[in-house]
Write a structure and sequence with these properties.
It is built from 5 helices and 20 strands. The chain is mainly beta and 409 residues long. Strand 11 and strand 12 form a beta hairpin.
């Protein structure tokens, strides 16, 4: 994956090196890259880097809990493993103690071309790396894995996978991972441990059309598509985090902006995403289940819930600086899964409806005028943003930091 990231960064560096030469070749015409519309017959490149961190999330009731709350404080007893019922009420392998911190780095490369003064074509190529740092332990119970268990023989009173802890010592975190991962126990999950995922994600292509402009008002319509090219979610890993879901999407966005004062303007944005039906391999998780045996994996029909988002932004300009604040509300509907063999998959659909409420604070420096005056080698715009998810449902409570570089040629 590192090789892929090097190629991504290399492409950006080459573009930045070539841009001043191409700009000189095209002259020093009037350019305003502070918005998302490019002048006719002009190219623009924008690189956005985003770092995020989360130790908590919002559950289905909007309550703030740990990121790994669904794996934490689980009593591994007969309610979870029915075979343990033969040891009597209260018999347990132990209680899990799991905590997690999610750190993410995302890089998005935007390449745009101004077809005319009213039409801009844009492509977006994303790359991401997510590190889920996990601490896993078990508070011991009164049962343990049986070291003498013979999986080649039938399970019987003399050949049980579990025994009382007195003779061999209580089950440890390593034993629980052994239970989850080794084929003899039937689950074949990956161990509960830190995991990193990285690679190219789902690219986007869209057209921005300036539908109206006049009297300090502007309306831009943006239809687009997202191609599901990222890796699928791993059905064997509890803890891998995917920033993109790999679905093919159709998007429509409306941006209405209005100048309120000579240096102050506001923008209202509405965006709708239709997530198209596809197929994914997953475990048939029934409602209320936590563990699913490996033999219940199959390729299923997946229909992810559509997404609506509303944003309100205010921007104030002073010389080459722009200050902005944004409020955003995003609502995603529940997913629908269908098993071709008729298995109960309601657990896959549970808690997949999501609500994000977050605010942004941003600062932008526009160096286009400085470039025209010969003080800058590039027509460069630099932006810093901070985002905080202050309320939500079934989402991470993340804090994100953005650095965005934009050049024109």
């Amino acid at each position: 994956m590192l090789y892929g990231r090097e190629k991504f960064i290399g492409m950006v560096i080459v573009t930045l090196l070539l841009s001043p030469l191409m700009a000189k070749a095209q002259g020093n015409g009037s350019v305003d890259l502070s918005g998302d519309m490019l002048p006719a017959e002009r190219w623009g490149v924008r690189l956005e880097s985003r770092f995020g961190i989360a130790t908590n999330r919002y559950d289905e009731h909007g309550k703030e809990v740990g990121v790994a709350d669904e794996l934490d404080n689980i009593d591994i007893n007969a309610d979870l493993l029915s075979v343990l019922s033969i040891f009597g009420a209260g018999a347990s392998l132990g209680v899990t103690d799991v905590s997690s911190t999610i750190k993410s780095l995302r890089e998005r490369l935007f390449i745009g071309y101004g077809v005319s003064e009213r039409v801009t074509l844009v492509s977006m190529l994303p790359w991401a790396e997510v590190r889920n740092e996990v601490d896993f332990d078990v508070t011991p119970g009164d049962l343990a894995l049986n070291p003498a268990f013979d999986p080649t023989q039938p399970v019987s009173a003399g050949n049980l996978p579990f025994v009382a802890a007195g003779a061999v010592g209580p089950a440890s975190a390593a034993d629980i991972n052994k239970l989850l991962t080794e084929p003899v126990y039937g689950y074949e999950y990956k161990p509960i441990e830190s995991v990193t995922t990285s690679g190219f994600q789902d690219p986007e292509f869209y057209l921005r059309w300036l539908a109206y402009q006049g009297d300090g008002k502007r309306l831009i319509l943006t239809p687009g598509i997202r191609l599901g090219m990222s890796e699928n979610d791993d059905p064997d890993n509890f803890l891998d985090v995917r920033l993109y879901n790999g679905s093919d999407d159709i998007m429509m966005r409306f941006d209405y902006s209005q100048r309120l004062m000579p240096a102050l303007d506001a923008q209202l944005t509405y965006r709708h995403t239709w997530q198209l039906m596809d197929h994914r391999r997953a475990r048939a998780l029934a409602e209320g289940e936590s563990l699913v045996s490996a033999n219940r994996k199959e390729r299923m029909e997946r229909d992810l819930g559509d997404v609506d988002e509303v944003m309100l932004e205010a921007r104030y300009r002073h010389d080459a600086w722009r200050y902005r604040v944004r409020l955003s509300y995003q609502n995603k509907k529940q997913d629908n899964w269908t098993s071709p063999s008729g298995q109960d998959v309601r657990g896959l659909e549970q808690d997949t409806d999501r609500i994000y409420q977050h605010y942004w604070l941003g600062l932008t420096w526009n160096g286009v005028s400085a470039w025209r005056d010969g003080a800058m080698p590039l027509p460069l715009i630099i932006a810093f943003d901070y985002r905080d998810v202050y309320k939500g449902k079934n989402v991470l409570k993340s804090k994100d930091y953005y650095l965005t570089l934009t050049v024109m040629f």
